[in-house]
Amino acid sequence: MPAQIEVYSKDYCPYCDKAKLLLTQLGAAFQEIDITHDPEGYEKIQARNPGARTVPQIFINNQPIGGCDALYAMHEEGKLVPLLAG
Question: Which of 29, 60, 76, 78 is most buried (most C-beta within 10 Å)?
Answer without folding.
Answer: 60
